[in-house]
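User: I want to check something. If I give you two sequences, will you return the structure for each one separately, not as a complex?

Assistant: Yes, each is folded on its own. Here is the first sequence with its structure:
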Amino acid sequence: MTRRPKPPLFLARAPYRRRRLRDAARLLPVLGLFLLLLPLLWTPDARMALTSGDVIYFFAVWLGLILLAAAFAPGLRGGEGAEDDED
């Protein structure tokens, strides 16, 4: 008795993209935390005073995270996510 090799697993393009988009959306808070804590690494001393550049950077990162989340939102919308999660 010889076993037949298993056929390759085919993933449809749309569910695959939805899964990767959900993965990216899950990593967005981690990216945001890293970007918001990044100025602490480049300060030469442990100063606690905020400069105008720090404030501008903070709001630019905040705006960027909002825009990324808004770009992800249409792809995450939909009720067909339940059948994608079966492994």
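And separately, the second sequence with its own structure:
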Amino acid sequence: MNQTNPRRKITSLLEIFLVSLRLGFTSFGGPIAHLGYFHEEYVRRRKWMDEKSYADLVALAQFLPGPASSQVGIGIGVMRAGVLGGIISFLGFTLPSVVALILFALLLKEFDIGTAGWIHGLKIVAVAVVAHAIMGMSKNLTPDIKRKAIALFALVGTLVWQTAFTQIGVILLAALLGFLLYKQPEESEETSSPFPIAKRISVIFLALFFSLLFLLPILREITGSYWVAMFDSFYRAGSLVFGGGHVVLPLLEQEFVPTGWLSEASFLAGYGATQAVPGPLFTFAAYLGTVMNGWLGGLVATGAIFLPAFLLILGALPFWDSLRNNPKIKGAILGVNAAVVGILISAFYFPIWTSSILAPVDFALASILFSMLAYWKLPPWIIVVSGAVGGSLLAMFQ
């Protein structure tokens, strides 16, 4: 499409925004479901890209840290209307859940409802949701004994050493183990596809990503600024999460709960509420930022946690072919993905289980919610509503 005509470009950007906004209002079910919605809308219905290009883009998003579905949406916008198209696509898809979670956080603060029974129900929802995520991810990411061992190493490491840097070290060691153990992974056909970004521009995006990752902690120490510290914590979480939105939970918990920036009860209540809204799970950051520092904090947190996704997808697009066809890189990613399972199991025990399952009836409710999600295949919003109602009923009879 020729984008030299300003009116045509504005029309194209408006179309991208409206389509992605509708997806943002209707895309429930997590990143895998989002990719299905994207395929139906962008590939089958609108034919903005072909099957191969879409598959290539999904593969790149799965390879990179960060929110996979959001990165695919950004990439589609870039291919349609350049970098500005990627930004517009992201805004449309993310806006509905960000607004909903900021409003929920403001309600939580204004009316002091942190001890309400339905809030405890939302914490139990988090138990069911993460247990379901573990079940699916472990089947796909730890199919052999070597990857199961890496997952166990990650589980033990993150439980025994509870620091903000443990998970980073575990991920790096898992990458090294995968590199050593899977030097010759299964042979696959080499593929290639063109992406509409010059390599010199992509290098700038990658340099900015790594510069912020290393300079923000230094700036945080030098300035002592609350806002710099907050931006650094969310940016680092968005930079180091492999495996999707659920895995951001332990990183954010380690950043904010031990430091006293917010309570475990508020943290888990927001995580449960995040399951009820459409769009990416990373918008959990909007809730956390709002609880800590009002609606402006919510916007800053959202921008910080999604910024790495932008920089990485725009920086990696032209280099994707050489990366994915490198067997050593493939092995390292296998190790990282296995470690993700162990990290998530660790977070499932602490803080999710230890602060949510306080009595046998709590476990009973969690079992019901898990069965509704995993076996009856009910939509996530029904699980959330059921958890809130169940928590209120438990509070009435205790």
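Because they were folded independently, the notes below concern the second chain alone. The chain has a mean pLDDT of 85. Residues 6-396 form one domain.
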